[in-house]
Amino acid sequence: MYAREQRILAREAMAQWIGTAPWELLITLTDPGMSHPEAMAKRARYLANRINRHLYGNHWQRRTAGIEYVVAYERQERGSWHAHMLLRLPDHDVDDPAQFSWKYWQRFASKLAFDESKASANFQRIRNQEAVNLYVSKYVLKDGNVDLSDSFNPAAPRLFKESLCGSARVH
Q1: 75: nearest Cα among 34, 135, 136, 15
Q2: Beta partners for residue 125, in sequence order
Q3: Residue 155 in contact with residue 47, Cβ under 8 Å?
Q4: Which residues are CB-neighbours of 163 under 8 A, at least 6 positions away?
Q5: Which of 25, 113, 128, 146 could form a disulfide with 119 if both were Cys (CB 3.0 to 4.6 A apart)?
Q6: Would you list the DSSP string of 45-69?
Q7: Cβ density class 60-98: b for 16+ within 10 Å, e for less
Q8: What 3 state SS string does 92-139 have?
Q9: Dihedrals φ, ψ of 71, to 5°?
Q10: Per residue in 63-83, pLDDT tens?
């Protein structure tokens, strides 16, 4: 089998594995400086921890498994690092500003970099699950750097079941 075909098969397998349930947000963290990959990983984990603390309280690990995420890191040609983060909030409705404020978290995430005047964070609602799973899988296979939340379990994904108002719906 040719190397290109092997990469395509590996990318499709990775996309299928991380895409066992729908993701809600794609977050891209950018630091245009010459950041170290561990600095970008710490930034992504810190963001996830702060979202968990905001949604579930300071000692959220005692009450819930928290949000689920997969983060793939990409080294750009100029040497800086990008993080592509898939996020699932199983107990919250990301479309309800009372439960999750996109504007607030985008501003917060942009300020996490060493030079916040140049850093950015882009939050996007996912419209095409298959495409975004392949997109993130490409960076996992390209650089081999990936973080999975402790709560991520492809065999038993946790899905949003109802909002705080009690309206039943499954994504």
Answers
A1: 34
A2: 25
A3: no
A4: 92, 93, 96, 99, 169
A5: 113
A6: HHHHHHHHHHHH-TTHHHH----EE
A7: beeeebbbbbbbbbbbeeeebbbbbbbbbbbbbbbeeee
A8: CCCCCCCCCCHHHHHHHHHCCCCCCCCCEEEEEECCCHHHHHHHHHHH
A9: -125, 125
A10: 777 888 999 888 888 777 888
**Distance in angstroms (rounded) separating the CA atoms of residues 72 and 41:** 9
Tokens 């495409």 label which residue?
131
Count the alpha carbons within 13 Å of 147 in the hemisphere toward its beta carbon: 22
- Of 152, 132, 116, 142, whose CA–CA distance to 43 is shortest? 116
Name the pTM for this structure. 0.78
Token readout for 18 is 């991380």
User: For residue 2, what are the CA distances in angstroms to 7, 14, 141?
Assistant: 9, 18, 16
Per-residue CA distances from 164 to 52, 65, 83, 160 (Å): 16, 18, 31, 11
What is the rounded CA–CA span in Å between residue 59 and residue 113?
25
Cα angle value 48/52/55 (rounded, 5°): 135
Mean pLDDT of 29-57: 84
